[in-house]
Structure prediction request, 422 residues.
Amino acid sequence: MRKYILSIPLMALLLMVASCKMATLTGTSEPPPPKQVPAPEVISVPQHQSPDDIKLVTAALMEALRGGAVPVENVTFDPAGQHSVNETGFFYEEFDAYNVSVTGYEVSQIREGAAQALLEGVILFKDVLNRRAAVYYAAQYTVTQTRVTITKSVIRGIPSDFPRVETFFVPEKKLRGVTAPLTSFADYYLFAIENAEPMHYNEGESKTGIKDKYVVMAFCKDRLFDESSLTMTVTDKALGAGKKLGEAISLNDSGWRILMAGGEFAPGSSRNKFFVTVSYKQEAASHLPHVVVGDYRNVKSKHVEAAPAAAQPASGPAPALAPPPPGSAPAPAPAPAPALAPTPGKEGPLALGQAFLNPVFPEDVEVIQARLKALGLYTGKIDRDFGPLTKRALDRFNVKHGFPKGQWGLDVQKALFKGTGL
Prediction:
């Protein structure tokens, strides 16, 4: 019993010593210094003061991005170097470089009369439709008095953080009545501008609020890449909630996305409301949620106070909204795929891209389903519905041929019908 009593003071003494040491350590400790993270610094140099080699190398990289048809004088790419500046199928035609920013520039002399430089920056492109695209570029090159030789170069697209989206409600009969095939983003966009339902009260064909067949068309004005996801829902409640009123399909023209959904809608109706929600995800495989980049509804806006401005569409854009000439209006779509017959021995208009199948139209879906079924990818019945079975079959084809899932475009169509004579 005595040995336990004697151990109590010893334990108390040890606890006092330990507490003193802890207090000493706590009192002398200091927080670590803040971590310094180097950030890129933009070098703002007026264009007329920029070194000539920066101008020449940037111009050469832009020409290489455009396909290299116009070489830059006194600038060459080293054939033994490492270069990755081209894109497949897109050469920024009709796009102007409206902003070039240098984010890094270093020069070091390697011998008498010669220097080696490192250059990096960002180029912003823009076209007449106000579409935008941005690329990052970097180059290593040698400079002499007579020549610039690029030894290493790379150009990569910069994904958009919050892409701009424009949405139109187009009567289906106008889309079916086109006299020339719509095959590109620009074709569809200009068509939508000319034929979309005016979204002001007492204007357009839907001013009575009666349902009719319409196609909701959403255009992304910023270039997206294959890993990005852009989706559209048409529902009877806001932000994608409620009943789905239309199934959206996606068209991809070299990164320029179009979302389309057909159905019976009543633009301008306060009773038959519908909502269009466009969501974006920079990397489809990431765990981050989709971001809503477009939120639209069918309610038309009120007239502006200025009467002449409100009456202007009746006299200005009216010719663009006019139906096709008599004789062609009652006819079906001018280039429906079912009417195309195979051409033995050579490629047909579908494989050449001279006609375009639009999955919004059931007759075009029928042709797509028949081709996928012939390839053994589609196992369902030919029901002219661009539903889950058809989309899964198309995804299998896309993966096999190097196209992104969930996309339909002219390049996919040309690959799908290659060798068929259609």
User: Anything to note?
Assistant: Residues 145 and 320 are 57 Å apart (CA to CA).
